[in-house]
Design a protein that fits this description.
The chain is mostly beta strands. Helix content is 0%, strand content 54%. The strands form two sheets. Strands 2, 4, 5, 6, 9, 10 and 11 form a seven-stranded mixed sheet that branches. A four-stranded antiparallel sheet has the order 1-3-8-7, with no helix packed on it.
Length: 115
C-alpha cells in the first residue's frame, strides 16, 4: 500500500536548522511531483515547497525562500526539506505530499520553534 513516512521533526530554538525526510513506498516515486505542506493551529494548510519528478525545478513559498531547500533522491524514494534560520512562525505540522493524478499524504510531523 501507499506510504509516506515523515521523520526529523522536533523542538528547537529560533535560528536553528532541521532536516525533514519523507520516505515513500507503494507507488512509482520518480513519476510524482513531491511537496511539503504545513499547517499551524488555526490556519489552513499551506504549500511550503515543491520539486518536480526529475528534481529539475523547485518552487517555494515566499515566506521560506532563501531559508528552506527541497531535494529528492529517486533511488532512495525519499524527499527532503532542509530548514535553516528557523523562526517561531515556522512552527507547524509538516506534511509530505505526492501528486501525479493521485494525491497522497503523509501523517504529518511536528516542528516547533521556540525559545
Amino acid at each position: 500500500q501507499v506510504q509516506l513516512v515523515e521523520s526529523g521533526g522536533g523542538l528547537l530554538q529560533p535560528g536553528g536548522s532541521l532536516r525533514l525526510s519523507c520516505a515513500a513506498s507503494g507507488f512509482t516515486f520518480n513519476w510524482y511531483l513531491m511537496s511539503w505542506y504545513r499547517q499551524a493551529p488555526g490556519n489552513e494548510r499551506e504549500l511550503v515547497a515543491s520539486i518536480t519528478n526529475t528534481g529539475d525545478t523547485t518552487t517555494y513559498a515566499d515566506s521560506v525562500k532563501g531559508r528552506f531547500t527541497i531535494s529528492r533522491d529517486n533511488a532512495k524514494k525519499t524527499v527532503y526539506l532542509q530548514m535553516n534560520s528557523l523562526k517561531p512562525e515556522d512552527t507547524a505540522v509538516y506534511y509530505c505530499n505526492a501528486r501525479y493524478g493521485n494525491n497522497y499524504w503523509g501523517q504529518g510531523i511536528q516542528v516547533t520553534v521556540s525559545s
